[in-house]
Amino acid sequence: MTSQFPRTDDVILGPGDDAAVVAAPDGRTVATTDLLVEGRHFRREWSSARDVGHRAVAQNYADVVAMGARPTGLLIGFAAPPELPLAWAEEFTAGVRDECALAGGAVVGGDTVGSDTLTIAITALGDLEGRSPVRREGARTGDVVAYTGHLGLSAAGLALLERSDAAAGTPVGETSAGQAGGALAGEVPVGATDGLAQCLSEHRRPSPPYAAGPEAARLGATAMLDVSDGLVQDLGHVCRASGVCIDLDSNAFRPDPALLEAVGVLGAPAGKAVDAARRLMLSGGEDHALAAVFPPEVRLPEHWHVVGTVGDAPGTGAESSGTRVTVDQNVIENGGWDHFRRD
Ligand SMILES: Nc1ncnc2c1ncn2[C@@H]1O[C@H](COP(=O)(O)OP(=O)(O)OP(=O)(O)O)[C@@H](O)[C@H]1O
Ligand SMILES: Cc1ncc(C[n+]2csc(CCOP(=O)(O)O)c2C)c(N)n1
Ligand SMILES: [Mg+2]
Questions:
Q1: CATH of range 134-337; options 3.40.50.2300, 3.30.450.20, 3.40.50.300, 3.90.650.10
Q2: 59: number of CA atoms within 13 Å, CB side?
Q3: Which residues, 6 or more positions from 106, have their beta carbon under 8 angstroms from its beta carbon?
Q4: Given a cut of 60, is residue 134 above it in pLDDT?
Q5: Ligand 3 (ion): which residues have CB within 5 A?
């Protein structure tokens, strides 16, 4: 599996020995790990092996760049049932290789074992290039909240796949969600419009804005994270860490046309499509957009969308529970992802 991974200047010793040796040009190493579990994070009926390879790298390197770092290397824990076709592992590996080519950083090692459940555990490393890490605790009253990348598309893609599963083959307008669910390998489903195909693709292969992480650090971001569980929920981590509140302006969320199309297919009435799309932008996880907080005087490049402001945390009364994220000053049901929720 390892022979096809290219080396980079950061790799002093690559796969093949008991451990790898990776350069840390800055003297510090950013390190993070994320798991992908079949049935929980992906389904082999919904995503090809290549998709899962892309996604495994993307969700890990999104965390690296969310610290303001440059990806340097990763290690892949691969636990697979014995009946997994070799071709699946090979295609997965090709997906990993191709996403690494986009994000930078080399595969430097891993481990392969048998397991009842197909599980991929990646550890990713990064270099801060002399910058301070952008943590969750630096947001200050008066700062602005901005995001870059996609929001809501992955959740819409997932909803399309779930719906196709529930009603396989049901035609939806021009498109059959059943066909969308049945199409594999990241191919555009037969009959799907571009918008639906884009949502499915963002779910299968999220496209984190890798370069924007180090960019935000250089611009002076005071806090940053990648959106994995939902924007409102994830910004809640910034609020708690920084001891602040964040208020988001719903009108600042301009839904992508692909998202508007998907919510229509998912059943939102025409007059409610923008509201439904905004709800997905606020609560949908797994796009791995970057959300960051900047001092108000920072001039942001236009791919950063300003969507909110940082305010003082409410007082210490029973009502306050310390810190929170509101939308148009209202507390909303955030709808974000909780691995341990019992439905
Ligand atoms: N089992 C664990 N052991 C040690 N630390 C953990 C464990 N699980 C989570 N953490 C730490 O808790 C913090 C939050 O973890 P979490 O997985 O929620 O990260 P996240 O960045 O919010 O989400 P994502 O990884 O999906 O982007 C991280 O610093 C992580 O390293
Ligand atoms: C088959 C299937 N069912 C549900 C979901 C949705 N989902 C799973 S984990 C997660 C949040 C991020 O996880 P983490 O915090 O572990 O990175 C979300 C939104 C999916 N992707 N696939
Ligand atoms: Mg994260």
A1: 3.90.650.10
A2: 26
A3: 5, 6, 7, 8, 10, 11, 14, 72, 73, 74, 100
A4: yes
A5: 63, 226
For residue 204 the two structure tokens come to 């299968």
ipTM: 0.92
- CATH class belonging to 25-127: alpha beta
Ligand nearest to the CA of 229: 2
Residues with CB under 6 A from ligand 1: 34, 63, 226, 228
For residues 168 and 180, which has the higher predicted lDDT (pLDDT)? 168
Number of neighbouring beta carbons within 10 Å of residue 142: 13
User: Which are the contacts of 179, defined by CB distance < 8 A and separation ≥ 6?
Assistant: 164, 169, 189, 190, 191, 192
pLDDT, one tens digit per residue, over 50-99 is 999 999 999 999 999 999 999 999 999 999 999 999 999 999 999 999 99
Residue 270, sorted as left (phi over 0), alpha (psi -120 to 50) or beta, turns out to be alpha
HSE at residue 136, side-chain half, CA atoms within 13 A, is 16
Radius of gyration of the chain (CA): 20
Q: Return binding residues.
A: 18, 32-34, 41, 63, 110-111, 136, 226, 228-229, 286, 337
Domain residue ranges in the chain: 25-127, 134-337
